[in-house]
Write a structure and sequence with these properties.
With 442 residues, the protein is mainly beta. Helix content is 10%, strand content 39%. Strands 1, 2, 14, 16, 17, 18, 19, 20, 21, 22 and 24 form an eleven-stranded antiparallel β-sheet that branches. Strands 3, 4, 5, 6, 7, 8, 9, 10, 11, 12 and 13 form an eleven-stranded antiparallel β-sheet that branches. Strands 15-23 form a two-stranded antiparallel ribbon.
Length: 442
């Protein structure tokens, strides 16, 4: 009895007001299967929150054309342009007879068809405008990895090949059809008709690729389109005197997904995170009104540290963390129907320089996610993400070296969405982060 009281006294001394609430029956390893123990619950371990910014994110080969821009009231100006290389399974006009038939073929029109993939973010009730431009640079990465990143870009012609203004309906409609320049289409048609273009190499030498760029004149939302189902379609027909014209098409699509990427930028000017440092450093929540920030696509992530965790091992000669829960609360009024909360958080383990070593795993080796509790009360106090941390904290408490691991929080789809979230830190007035550790001594 004296030993148990001593253990509790040390816990209270180190962590201010850890409680000895009955947390249930816990078992620690096969040697203790017969032992049922009272567990002390400690809820005052220091948790530090900060915001970091990854140097870059791979955005090629993500199966999504992401286009649009919007002015975020918290994060700043978000913009995504999409670059891609086109190809076709056919570089010849329909010809059932001799080459002389080509004389009878005439160009009709050319359009880009973008198939919605049901992703959207921002205000889809407002008009969004974008332009299609011709690339003047080949779609070829300049890195050894063979990938393109959110900060990658390619040069393009300033002349627009097609302008489209619309109110996005990513769920209610199947696709959008954008009429492109007749001059552009006619020139491409003549190249094929004259056999100047006969295969992929001669085609890409003539047309290196296209980019879709959102207009700066209006800013409302970012929309996702399906890479494999979107295409450029050229319409032409065969003319014969006294005979109805017969229509034909040639489709140019994105057959190589590695040659399509989204360039996603964030202008943070005037925001709380405008002074976000380089990728190896961090911006403490003490400098951002007690808040941590996460945004997919732009590389903004939240970092969590437990600076005093190792003191727990001095509570007793033999003890262990048998369970732990980290509860993160989204800041009130930072989310809405336009900026909804994601259903989960993706958790990584990183070092002091924000280098990721692995995903967060439980004792069984399965990935651990932060799961959103959507059941709200009158004041939204129950809305939050719960992350089970027992396995991670036990290993950190017993780590022999002086190095410490951090948790890095991101959102699912980090490379192909622009979702974001704002979280409260341990001293936030209304949305405090909570850490509950269940510790057993034996």
């Amino acid at each position: 009895m004296r030993k148990l009281l001593f253990v509790l006294f040390i816990a209270f001394t180190l962590f201010s007001c850890g409680t000895d609430t009955d947390a249930g029956e816990f078992v620690v390893g096969s040697d203790y299967l017969a032992l049922n123990n009272k567990v002390v619950m400690i809820d005052t371990v220091t948790v530090e929150m900060s915001t970091i910014n990854f140097d870059s994110l791979v955005t090629s080969n993500q199966s999504r054309i992401l286009v649009g821009n919007y002015d975020d009231p918290i994060f700043g100006k978000v913009k995504s342009s999409s670059y891609f290389q086109l190809s076709s399974s056919n570089y010849a006009l329909n010809n059932e007879g001799s080459d002389t038939e080509n004389v009878n073929y005439v160009f009709d029109s050319i359009s880009m068809v973008l198939k919605y993939d049901n992703y959207f973010y921002g205000d889809t009730t407002k008009i969004q405008t974008f332009n299609i431009h011709r690339l003047t640079q080949k779609v070829k990465p300049n890195t050894d990895s063979g990938s393109f990143y959110n900060n990658s870009s390619l040069s393009y012609d300033e002349e627009s090949l097609g302008t489209f203004s619309y109110k996005p309906r990513p769920v209610g409609k199947d696709s959008i059809n954008i009429k492109m320049s007749n001059a552009f289409g006619e020139a491409l048609f003549q190249k094929i008709k004259k056999r100047d273009i006969t295969d992929f190499d001669t085609f890409t030498e003539y047309l290196k690729g296209l980019v879709i760029v959102p207009s700066s004149s209006n800013s409302s939302s970012v929309i996702g389109f399906n890479t494999s189902k979107s295409l450029v379609r050229m319409y032409y027909s065969k003319y014969q005197a006294g005979v109805d014209e017969v229509p034909f098409v040639i489709d140019f699509s994105i057959l190589d997904a590695t040659k399509q990427f989204n360039s996603i930028s964030l202008d943070k000017t005037g925001t709380l995170i405008q002074n976000l440092p380089i990728s190896s450093s961090k911006l403490s929540s003490t400098a951002t009104n007690g808040q941590g920030f996460i945004q997919s696509g732009t590389g903004v992530a939240c970092r969590i540290d437990f600076p005093n965790l190792r003191q727990l091992k001095y509570i007793s000669d033999n003890g262990a963390i048998v369970d732990a829960q980290l509860i993160l609360k989204p800041v009130n009024n930072s989310y809405s129907e336009k900026y909804p909360l994601a259903d989960s958080l993706k958790i990584y383990v990183g070092d002091n320089l924000n280098r990721i070593s692995s995903s967060l795993l439980n004792s069984a080796g399965a990935q651990v996610y932060g799961i959103l509790n959507k059941k709200s009360d009158e004041f939204n106090e129950n809305i939050g993400y719960t992350i089970p941390l027992g396995n991670f904290l036990q290993k950190e408490m017993l780590r022999a070296s002086d190095s410490k691991s951090s948790l890095i929080l991101t959102l699912p789809g980090i490379s192909k969405t622009v979702n974001r979230i704002v979280l409260g830190d341990q001293k936030h007035l209304n949305n405090k982060i909570q850490l509950k550790i269940y510790y057993i001594s034996y």
